[in-house]
Each structure stands twice: as structure tokens, then as C-alpha cells.
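DM from R.C. (forwarded with permission)

"hey, sorry to bug you on a friday — could you get me a structure for this? deadline for the figure draft is monday and I only need the backbone to look sensible"
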Amino acid sequence: MEQDLADWLNVLAANMTAAAQAEYKAKARIIKALAHPTRLFIVDELSRGERCVCELTDMIGVEMPTVSRHLSQLKSVGILEDEKRGSQVFYRLRVPCVLNFFKCVEAVQSNGNGN
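My reply, with the result:
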């Protein structure tokens, strides 16, 4: 999937300005950050309210370093923000509008075009 996206961006690059290319690459980076089932689960779970890393680790059922990497990817593109309280770190959605993307994906699925 990454190579397909890279190929697509290279084709578009030949027909668009450098500014437009940079904008599409930035958007692709955000979409790529969402392109993992665990990260989608995290975003969905945080739509219900903030959670500490330990809660998310228990919910997901993997080691804390793995959950931390997923959280870091989502934070690096601006989807999440965190707050340290004592020894715990709590995460919440920085931009709840990301849930609109979920609605769009669900619409595609309900039209029989998603797998």
C-alpha cells in the first residue's frame, strides 16, 4: 500500500505545483497514520473520552511499547494530544473531526465497495 501511494504521488507530482505536492504529501501522512487497525481502534476508543496508556494497553492486549508507538504516530500528525499526570500519560483526540473520516469509511463499506 505504501508503494502504491508513493507511485500515485509521483505521478501527481509531474502535473502539480510544488506547493500542491507538499499539501498532498502532508494529507497522505495523516491518512497513513490512521491506516492500521490498532490505531483506528485507539481513535475510536478516544472518541468516548481520554484514556491513559495503561488502559489502552489492557484494551488492545499488546505490550506497552507497541501501544506507545501507535500513540506516538497519531500524536505526530496532530490527531492526538497527551497530558502527563504523575506517572501516567493520558491521551485524547486533538481534532474530533477525524471521526468524520470514520463515517466516510462506513459509507463506502455500506455501499459495497469496502472489504
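R.C.: lifesaver. The chain is about 65% helix and 10% strand.
me: no worries. Residues 37-115 form a domain with the Arc Repressor Mutant, subunit A fold (CATH 1.10.10.10).
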